[in-house]
């Protein structure tokens, strides 16, 4: 079974004007500990606390939102998320294969 979970945390100051939450994006040096089922809870909490928060926000466009615009925006975001998740899963798969 293939599954995925998205964890969120309080938003970084650079994007809090968009939303009060943001995804937890792990730093590469934490991948191994994150995937290790023996990593203790306090260490997992430290990994989450040390996750990336160096994000910027940019307006997508300044046009009136109509149905087509909203549909295109949703499709773009979904495609981006699919590519992002595929890349992360590929990195994890390679790490698991090499270990």
Annotation keywords:
mainly alpha; 2 domains; two-stranded antiparallel ribbon; 3 helices; 2 strands; SOS response associated peptidase (SRAP)
Folded structure, characterized:
This protein is mainly α. It folds into two domains: 1-58, no CATH class; 62-99. The chain has three helices and two strands, in the order ββααα. The protein has helices at 31-35, 41-49, 67-98, and strands at 8-10, 21-23. The chain has a two-stranded antiparallel sheet. 0% of the residues are buried.
Architecture blueprint of SSEs:
Elements: E1 8-10, E2 21-23, H1 31-35, H2 41-49, H3 67-98
Antiparallel strand pairs: 1-2
Mean pLDDT: 81
Task: Write the H/E string, N to C.
Answer: EEHHH
Rg of Cα set: 17 Å
Number of helices: 3
Largest sheet: 2 strands, antiparallel
**Kindly, what is the distance between the CA atoms of the first and last residues, rounded to a whole number of angstroms?**
21 Å
Poorly predicted runs of 5 or more residues: none
What is the approximate shape? globular
Report the strand count: 2
- Give the amount of beta strand, in percent: 5-15%
**Order of strands in the sheet with most strands:** 1-2
Helix content: 40-55%
Structurally, the number of domains stands at 2
Briefly note the structural class of the backbone: mainly alpha
